[in-house]
Structure formats: structure tokens, C-alpha cells
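Annotators were shown the component list below and the corresponding predicted structure, then asked to write short factual statements about the assembly.
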Amino acid sequence: MPQLRQDLVTQRWVAIATERAKRPSSFSRAAAVPVPPAAQCPFCVGHEAMTPPEVMAFRVPGTEPNTPGWEVRVVPNLYPAFGPADLEPVISHVGPYTTMTGVGVHEVLISSPSHGDDFAQLPVSHIEKVVRAYIARYDAHRQNPAIRYILIINNHGKEAGASLEHPHSQLFGIPLVPSAVCEELDGVRRYRAESGRCVYCDIVTAEREAGERVIQENDWFLVYAPFASRTPFEASILPKWHAARFETMTVEQQKAFASTLHDLTARLYHGLNDPPFNFYIHTAPPHGDAEPDYHWHLELLPKLAIAAGFELGTGVMINVATPESAAEYLRNVDLSAPAPAVSAPGVH
Amino acid sequence: MPQLRQDLVTQRWVAIATERAKRPSSFSRAAAVPVPPAAQCPFCVGHEAMTPPEVMAFRVPGTEPNTPGWEVRVVPNLYPAFGPADLEPVISHVGPYTTMTGVGVHEVLISSPSHGDDFAQLPVSHIEKVVRAYIARYDAHRQNPAIRYILIINNHGKEAGASLEHPHSQLFGIPLVPSAVCEELDGVRRYRAESGRCVYCDIVTAEREAGERVIQENDWFLVYAPFASRTPFEASILPKWHAARFETMTVEQQKAFASTLHDLTARLYHGLNDPPFNFYIHTAPPHGDAEPDYHWHLELLPKLAIAAGFELGTGVMINVATPESAAEYLRNVDLSAPAPAVSAPGVH
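Structure shown to annotators:
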């Protein structure tokens, strides 16, 4: 079973993913594993047998599970970092150290049958279905008492950690509220204690007033380059209304979110020639008293810099682009422009 | 001047390195900058005019500064992430946000005149001189009241962020104690409050007893794979005696440290075919009351995994190798074996 281990000094948790473990010699520089080509892609139509059986799919009526005919398909991860989901986490001790069983879930949400189309290319009407799948899978796990946090993430491009090229997102259900979310919850509470207001609502107001970090905006969402952006072209999608949970979006809000995600990723695709990126959705923990103080959002970080010795040793990122110049650049990308030339196969 | 910006929610600091700023379009995938070849290397002998004038060097007697004849050479970084060093940091506010001027120092310590030899190849007697240079530069800045922390780091290999191939370390003097060090200081104090003991001293005892995570050991240093290793083959060099400050090492301890650093990097070089890695030295902040509670150490993280959406969104790393298997593998590397074939130029 996967295992979580806590650092004795910093109290940071690390997941030791024994299900994905490799032999030590496989880490030798000569042994790099190439991304499989499309013909062997387990996420392509007709290859449904290459994945574990689907747990959900949006399908053409009348088609059978695990056969073609799907639009969005959700399967368990073949090499789960967390699981199983039907056990309570058990804490134990090894000498002075603390470990926890890595119970939970790890699912893959395949964006569409198309191997080459990601959010920047898919029609907004299709991205709405992806968003609907995010919410459906969130709802499938949120009552599980063993799962203390649910994170939906997307890795785009090999340099951003996508081990398969075919666009997909991942859902992790994990047995603790992770430090990155605890820091935000602490910040939300501290700011509210000091001001009586929601810090994210105040950011919406401040960024709309300043304008210089705004990338795009619609009735429901503000997209901006955070004032303390960690990487060049970091962007946040922030609901303009106060809501702790992304999974409570109305259908109208889901449509606006899908459109926002399309436009932001299209700006990156056209403006920066399809850079690798990661995004994740921070929503309130499923249990506990964080609601209604939290304010959900999506954070997107292009993989355009390397966290090297300084960043690892300090926790302070060095960002070589100002958020203001990044926002201006992305704001001015012409979304009606033709796509850049297709990159060489296997490059991303 | 470089600028530090604080995130309003998490209170994380980010350095916006305007001195190193690039045009937004330079981040486009097509615009990647290649590592310069050796013939244009500013750190090679005879190219001394390509760097800012040296601030220190160990030299053959009778040779002039900024000419050949040096063994270890220290120069200001041409594109400093922090500076200048002669001003107090100034905090100011932009809307709801907080910034600080990025005063400080950023120096490059060129390991040797050899373009191709790093710690795994250099004689231990030469690495002793590098260690001596670390301490000398640390001591040069530690009285500066504007500098609240001094970090020495080493990036090895392009994938680990080394923008120049010629082996070198970097010293950063920055105007705050960074979060990664604060977390350790908090952990040291918490553990001492609970147990009356130093957590790092207890780790030395526990790891020597367990044995399975020990990589190597000599009279002065224990090298081990941390129980909660964040990446495959993470390793810590921990002094077996309690000392808050690396810069207080005796000459005998410096010799043992140089030998330890050589052997650890040689294990990586021979065992994993020269993987990219980062290391940094965590020592007590130069000012304040952390001494004598802190316990200095070196942390080394091979760049063999990508921090992707899950890691960024949670702060929890997923490690696909157990520290026990990594330690066993590195412990068994034959340091008398011949070096692997040289990689193609420009690959790392």
C-alpha cells in the first residue's frame, strides 16, 4: 500500500508511491523512458482495454462501457499513488518517525477521444463536459470519511510531468489536508480575523482596480497574474463571487469556467508556442469547518523555469518575469490567430 | 533593484529578479537558450575578463587578480538575483500587497579551472579549497546587518538549473530568513521543547541504529537518505557533532567534509551515470538567537523527478523510490570503478 511519511523536523509529508516504485538502476541517465507514441496510447479510442475498467464516462447513448463511443472517460490510475479508498488511514511509528497508510483514490479523467486536442483546441462545449466530470468525480468521493482532501490537477506536456501525451486530468483523494491548502486556509482565517473580509474577494477588487495584472475577465471569473507569481506567466482563475467549493458551481458558472479555461490555455498556446504547464483546483476540504470562509480557485503554472538549489533551499522562488509584463503579453494574444506549426512528435 | 514580493494569502515570498528579466516572447518554446560551449565559457582559465572582477581567489603566488593562476575563483554574479549589499531592505505596500527591496549579494564560486571536473572528479585536496572559499565568503558577509540569511548552493547539470556547464557554486545573501529555514528552526525548537534534545542529533543516533538508510559515514559526518526523502536518491550530510554553524568547522572537519562531498557525488556519478542534482547548505542565520539550538547540514536532491500538478497543489512530493532502496544502491556503488563514458557535449 502507498505510504505517507512525515519529516521529523519540518513535519512535511511525502508520499512514497510503492505501487509506482522502480528499480534504483532505472534512474540512471541512460534509462529514460520515452513517452509512448499515439499508436500505443492507452487513452485513445479503441484502446479501452489498455486501462482499468472505467468508473464513469459520458457516452453516446447505447454504447457499452469500455468500448468506443465515449466523450469523457474516467478510469482508475493503473499505478495509483494513493489507495485503496475503503480503509481508514492508519498512523504508525518507525523509530522517531511517523508514517500513515496512503489510502485514497487516484483517477484519470481522459479529456476527449482526440490524442492531439487539449483545452486550447477543444470546443468550449466539450470542456463543459470535462468540468462536469470533475464535479461528478468530486461528488463521488466527498462523503468518504477516509478522504480528507480531493485535488484535481492537469499536467500538460512532458516537461510538466505528463507521462502520457493524450490530454487528461487526474483526481487525487488523500488522507490528509495538505500543507499548501492549510497555508491558504490559515491565510484566509488570518485575513478575515484582521479585516472581516475574504482575502480572495479583496484580491478580485484590487486586481480589477489595478488592471495591470489582469489577463482576462468575464461575468463570473477573473484571470490574473498573481502579484507574487512564482513562475513566469503564472495565472489564477478566481471566481468573482464568494464560494468555498468549486463543485457547487451552477451550470451557467460551469459554462463560464469552461470558456475561461479554454481562453487562458489558448493564450498560452498561441502566445508561447504551447508551453508545458500544470494546473490544480483548490477547493475547500470535503469535511470540517472551512466553509464558508474559503474561496476556491484554479492556479496554473507554466513550466518555464527550474526550481534549483536556491528555490529548494529557501522555499523562495526566483521569477525572471514580472507578473505585470506577463499579464500584458497574455492579455494581448490574438485568440483569433492561426495556431502555431505543430511541434515535432514526442517533443511534448 | 531586485524585488521581493509577499503572497497576500500564504505569506510566501517570491523574488522578482528584474536584473535577469527577459522579454515575455523569449519564453516561447522555440526560444530556448543553449548552454554555451567550453570555448565561450566565462569560467574557464584565460576568460577572466568575461566575468565581473573577482572578489576572492586562491592563486598561485605571484599571479595577478583576474588573470590565470587561480585554483578557486569567486566573482559577483553578472545577473544578480539580489543586490546591492550596502542598503537596508525597505518594505513598502502596493494596494493590499507587501514588497521588500531585494538587497543582498549573489556570488559565483568557480570550483576549479577545469571545465569538466566537478566534485566527483576533483581531488579531495582541491575540494578542501572550495570548502575554505565557502567559509571565507560566508564570513565576508555575515556581519552585514542587511543580510538576514546566507545560503550556499550548487546546481549540477542543465536539468538542475545550471545555466553554465563549468562547475560552480553560488552564495546568496538575502534580506530575510527564508521559509524553508524557518520551518527547520521551528522544528528544532518544538523537538527540543518536547524532548530536551536536538532533533538532528537524535536523527544521527536513529539512522546509525537502523542502518538501512545510511549511505556512508566517517568520523565526522553521517550521509543518509532521509526517512521522508522528497525525491529518489535524496541525501543529507549531517555532522555527527552538534554545531549550529557550518562556518565554524575546524580544518580537520573541513577535510572530512570535502572527502564526504567527494564520495557522495562520486556515488551518484558512478551509480546513476552523472545525474543532475542540487545541493544547499543549511546553517544558522547569521544574526539572532538560533544558535546553539540549530544543527547545520547539507541537503542534496537529484533532479530525477518533476514536481507536477499534485506536488505544486499540495506541497506533498510523490517519491517513486524508497529511501531504503536508494541508500542500499548508493552504499554499494564501487568508488574504485572506472568512470562511465563521457556524455555528449551540451547534454548536461
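Statements collected:
1. The CA atoms of residues 23 and 206 of chain B lie 51 Å apart.
2. Chain B touches chain A through 102 residues (CB under 8 Å).
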